[in-house]
Amino acid sequence: MYDKYNFITGVPHWNEKKCDLDENVTMMNINSCVNGSLDKNDEKFIFPSKYLNNLKLCKLKIGMAPLFPYSVIANENSLQSLDRLKEEDIFGSDLEIIKIMAKKINFTLEMFYIKRDEDNNMVKKNFINYLLNGTLDACAGGLYNIYGNVVAYSGVYDRELVIWIYTVERETRSWQTLLRKTGGLYIFLIFLASYSIIWKLFCQFDGRAVSLNNTILYSFGALVGTTSLLDAMSLKQKILNLSYLILCLHLSSYISTQMYYYLTVENPPQTINTIDELAISDTIPYLVPTKKYFLNNDKYIAFANTSRDCEDFLDCERSVLKNRGATLILDGLLYPFQSSTAVKDESRIMRVDEDVLVLYHEMIMRKDSFMVDKLHNIILRLFEAGICDKLYKEAIGVTIVDKAKIAVKNILSYSYSCSAGCKITWLQLAGSFYLWMIGCGLSICCFIVEILTKKQV
Predict the structure, then answer these.
(1) Per 3-state DSSP, what percentage of the chain is helix, strand, and coil (rounded to 5)?
(2) CATH homologous superfamily, domain 59-157
(3) CB distance 103 to 55 below 8 Å
(4) Residue pLDDT, tens place only, 300-334
(5) What is its main location (predicted)?
């Protein structure tokens, strides 16, 4: 005698004629247990899957909402809600994800346009009724988990950031930048004063009359390479002069290096890392008045109150570029903006490192749909494998993303006007010629004054 137990369960059966589940579920014997041992030890017989893996080319009706780069629809402005869409009319990462689903479980994709023409696309629910009444099976196009429990969700397949962007430019050459780069000259002036005082003390000790003014004048002349030092009469003065001449050589090297650096190298612009830094900077924000108060945060609202108005996002873009301002943007739009506005392969647009808001994208489905668990499982696997992120970047454009990243890297690095053997032009040295002409003019004026003074005497 032996004990035998049968495992019986009902597995859903898909009826391709009705494109629906059969109402009558056939009970099947999936395994047997004899004297404590299973007849079939394979996991698929112990826990058989009840997911439908083959819809036998039945149609699944998907509503597509427009949002770059998830779902970009051709001739969007001429379409009405539930207008039928062809695959060639759409491109974007959501379309590619849906096509993967269709191939995975063998359904025919039928897509419809769902219109979103309101001020805030995130919170309007006008297309939810299409799911509730069975017109659509699912909706995609950069949607969010904000519609309550009346619908089912696919699970997160991508996240998008709301960020501040601002314009940057390299610092132009000016006398102010030259003075900043040669700010270490004060050290040499300290040594000049020290040398003059020590020389004066040595001369007094040796009983040699010397003017402090002449000492400073000759010391300065030697420092800039225009005169010789005063004659050294003792060993201590010779040692002092030798050490000072070495200092003069270092000054000459320092000035030539800084001048070369000033004329051939441009520093990267100052960057802004936090929203607080942006708020206290001189950067003016440009925002659309009807859309800017989407975040209940005191600091954000205070900064938004200082903004200037723009009509729409494109107008905000133009205002930011024209007036060196800042605006809010979805990070999916950042790469195309940086790529299209780059000058000499250097980005004019940078983002603040701190995020304003994080948005998580999910597709929505009919809650009573038999495909909810299966589609959720597919989305989860695609997300974990990094395929969703790959499709997202491909929808933006791989070359656009790369160009934007290169442009940002270039603007954050030092700019060299040449790679080797840099030639400094006469135009770049014009400032020194102007100084020489001014000096000559002042000398001539002094000469004329002396002539007139002697004539009067």
Answers:
(1) 45, 20, 40
(2) Periplasmic binding protein-like II (3.40.190.10)
(3) no
(4) 889 989 999 998 888 998 999 999 999 999 988 99
(5) membrane
